[in-house]
TrEMBL record:
Entry-linked Gene3D superfamilies: Winged helix-like DNA-binding domain superfamily/Winged helix DNA-binding domain (1.10.10.10)
Membrane-spanning residues: none
Keyword Transcription regulation assigned: yes
GO-annotated molecular function: DNA binding; DNA-binding transcription factor activity
PROSITE patterns from the UniProt entry: HTH_DEOR_1, HTH_DEOR_2
Record-annotated HTH deoR-type domain positions: 3-58
Alphabetic keyword roster: DNA-binding, Transcription, Transcription regulation
Pfam families xref list: DeoRC (PF00455), HTH_DeoR (PF08220)
Keyword Transcription regulation in record: yes
Organism this protein belongs to: Novosphingobium endophyticum
Designated name of the protein: DeoR family transcriptional regulator
Amino acid sequence: MHAEQRERLILDAIAGTGFISYRDLEARLDASPATIRRDLTRLEEAGHILRVHGGAKLPDRPQSLAGTPFVQSITQHLPAKRAIGRAAAALCAPGEGIMVDGGTTTLQMCQHLDGKDLQVLTNSLHIVNALLPQVGTRVLLPSGTVFREQNIVLAPTGEDSMPRFHAPKLFMGAAAVGLQGVMQPDVILVAAERRLIDRAETVILLVDSSKFRLSSGAIVCGLDEVDVLVTDPGIPDDMRAVLDAKAVRLIIAKTD
């Protein structure tokens, strides 16, 4: 098992309860105690965990998330995000259930969902507000803590916060996409998105092409877990080749 895979498993395990013991990690991972200690050291140096007596826990943090604040991010690359949102909405069949993760690109789907009579599970209050005027759209929310800067509801304590809802499609964004996979800047976001991925049949990633030029963050999933990627014409040629090799369906959304 590669170090990146172990780190993702460690983050998922800690995100479930906020703490995990060394003994539990040794039972979960196919690795020696020395290897696990090195993995924990890297994660702690990156600020994702805090090593404590007997194991590791999530770091104490204020009610905000790492990364660009929503009000700043929503104005960046807006024409591309609008085109991506329109193309993503066209993938929705009338009357089906979908999951839409919070983000400034997924938000651009909302205006194009009116009249499709969808059931939408989302953790984004921005998306809730955009969908509420649509009479035929039913909206579901998980329980949890509201992170004000992103206006998103997250519950790192686990599955109990999620409605009993299964949807064939998950639409999600990312802070960065690279050879390592799909990345986010905050471990709480990673845990929340993993719970959504585990419920989905089809994972649809919405990212503008600037996200391919970034390469840091906690890994949410590998590219082999992504079924469809919607982006703009600025995607680098080498990334097109990688996606093709991974059998990821690529949709290029052109701006007006």
